């Protein structure tokens, strides 16, 4: 550790961004460790040997942002394709566009409503529940968009996400269900979106392509049998940016924070194109997975490089995470929030250590948000430690 000015635990977007900034602004010598055998954290992807298709190992990752600082920053390391995200859903043997829009509504009701007519209809259907204070998600859903659309598109999908009957789920899970009274089915509303032209990993490698940044993979910060462990680093007085789970850092002594995880089941089809789109949701209970991703359709511009007659689809099965599972979505019950606040108070007292990223702050962040918080954390918290 003698020739290291900063140790970063976690080679996800938070860690990579801080590393890049520390070199650029302070000329620091940075050592990044990650327990996994690759960089990029959950946004990592690889090119499948058989087909040449880029597969997002921890679930589909679409880059989108309205934050100019972040957009300019990421464009220093990669170009983006002109991919525009759109999602479809299968319900009752029919395919509908999402998010629920005028196309979805007219197809569902076999109608040709104008925007005003559709709005009136939904208000009428939702109005039946106007006087109810929702006791659970089921009632909340009906109150927001009326029974027919809620039951077709939201109820069973959400039930599968939580592996719980929506009548047993808290109403607070869904605060609003945006409806679009036009035919726009562009999924994100952000100013910029796209996918990294040469893939996610090429982007991430470019961020840390500097001889002052060293990366050690397969290294657990808490494993005292290896040299860059927590005790050794702290004894040497080297500042640390920690992006692992905050409860793990404190040996779970105030309890465990709860997460949902996703299991992926891969299927290979002898077809050029299985769905005709990258994401197919399944709104009904008879299909056990929530959605399926056909990765080749994220990058149609690479068609020439794909093996003909082959495609790869990943089905997603959602469930509560146990220790040892990949934590994906914070559950954030009142209990979780209390526990996190206590860990956060303890973290503030840790000398020389900055907690960041989705695991270090128990928050769901999109990539652009994690980059934004990392740029700010570098300026406000990490840079002062490097000047000491
Ligand atoms: P991240 O989890 O990526 O990195 C943390 C790293 O720390 C990991 O690599 C881990 O191995 C390492 N680590 C933990 N403990 C350690 C220890 N003890 N020792 C060493 N290393 C340790 N965002 C978006 O913008 N568009 C999208 O479409 C999606 N899609 C999406 C799908 C799914 C299923 C999920 C779960 C998430 C998304 N995201 C997303 C969010 C995106 O994944 C997220 O914003 C970033 O991965 C967060 O980067 P971090 O660096 O915070 O964590």
TrEMBL record:
<dbReference type="InterPro" id="IPR004379">
    <property type="entry name" value="UDP-GALP_mutase"/>
</dbReference>
<keyword id="KW-0413">Isomerase</keyword>
<comment type="similarity">
    <text>Belongs to the UDP-galactopyranose/dTDP-fucopyranose mutase family.</text>
</comment>
<keyword id="KW-0274">FAD</keyword>
<dbReference type="GO" id="GO:0008767">
    <property type="term" value="F:UDP-galactopyranose mutase activity"/>
</dbReference>
<dbReference type="Pfam" id="PF13450">
    <property type="entry name" value="NAD_binding_8"/>
</dbReference>
<protein>
    <submittedName>
        <fullName>UDP-galactopyranose mutase</fullName>
        <ecNumber>5.4.99.9</ecNumber>
    </submittedName>
</protein>
<dbReference type="Pfam" id="PF03275">
    <property type="entry name" value="GLF"/>
</dbReference>
<dbReference type="InterPro" id="IPR015899">
    <property type="entry name" value="UDP-GalPyranose_mutase_C"/>
</dbReference>
<feature type="domain" description="UDP-galactopyranose mutase C-terminal">
    <location>
        <begin position="152"/>
        <end position="364"/>
    </location>
</feature>
<keyword id="KW-0285">Flavoprotein</keyword>
